[in-house]
Amino acid sequence: MKETLLFTVALLISASILAQSKKDTEAVTKACMNYIEGFYEGDTVKIKYSLKPRLYKFGYWKDKASDTYNEESFMSYAEAIAYAKNVKEKKQFAPKTAPKTVEILDIGDQIAAAKITAWWGIDYMLLSKEGDKWMIEQVLWEGPLAND
Hints:
Elements: H1 2-41, H2 44-50, E1 51-63, E2 68-71, H3 77-89, E3 101-107, E4 111-118, E5 121-130, E6 133-143
Parallel strand pairs: 1-6
Antiparallel strand pairs: 1-2, 3-4, 4-5, 5-6
Helix pairs in contact: 1-2, 1-3
């Protein structure tokens, strides 16, 4: 009887952890997809939903002529929103075939790491959780994609 009770409790705890893990995985993926789609579609709502106002985004762009990487300037939360607005206003949407993948690297209780692949290259993201919502705090990117 004691073993059955112990097994049942262990099973319930495992099920709870797996359910939370799946919920967190879906929420981290959603935040990352909102980020990509926000820039692709010029959707500021998706950008605001995915990014923390204290966003720190920094990256490197490869100059095809010199084959060297150049440091790009920092992009703030406000600049990310302005960029998305500009995409929409100028109708410079990403093509339907543009890459849009999310790879979750790790999820903890309050923090997560993910890698996304988009038309501009790759981004490594650090996310944090507030309540049940995951949001992107930091992004380090490199572009363009290696095969471009």
